[in-house]
Design goal:
The protein has 3 helices and 9 strands; from the N terminus they run H-E-E-E-E-H-E-E-E-E-E-H. With about 140 residues, it is an alpha+beta fold. The longest helix has 22 residues.
């Protein structure tokens, strides 16, 4: 059973990739195009409490996330934020950063905070259909890498 953080971020509709210890998901609210959450599946609320397996898998997840986002978003910077104030399960918000805008499925995604810290409250909300569509497209790209 996924933890509350994975469920909050629309698992399984938003799922792109998964390992034994991690799930990679699209954020339903996109402060920038391609914003993700990487959620640990272990029942831990402290980064230091991760198992050796989870730490080892995080390396491969990081490589996969960076490759996917470079190919799909062409980011200029990538912010990995561990903001566990509301959702205590170990997880990262991965925010691609770029100057200008990105377009997908008739939507426009600006990086409102560029070049400063990300503006997380200014986001494009994906409805369930678009969320599932984009997650499926990116899951296929993840598998093809």
């Amino acid at each position: 059973m996924p933890n509350p953080t994975a469920l909050k971020f629309a698992w399984p509709r938003s799922r792109i990739a998964e390992t034994a210890s991690w799930t990679v998901q699209l954020r339903p609210k996109q402060p920038t195009f391609g914003s993700l959450v990487v959620v640990c599946k272990e029942p831990v609320t402290a980064f230091s409490a991760l198992s050796p397996q989870a730490f080892a898998e995080l390396r491969d997840i990081t490589i996969g996330v960076e490759r996917l986002l470079k190919a799909m978003v062409d980011y200029q910077r990538l912010n990995w934020l561990m903001l566990m104030m509301v959702d205590p399960d170990v997880h990262f918000h991965v925010i691609p950063r770029y100057e200008g805008v990105r377009h997908w499925d008739g939507l426009t995604f600006a990086d409102a905070g560029w070049p400063n810290p990300p503006a997380l409250t200014e986001a494009v909300s994906l409805d369930d259909g678009r969320l599932a569509q984009l997650a499926a497209e990116w899951a296929a790209a993840w598998q093809a890498r």
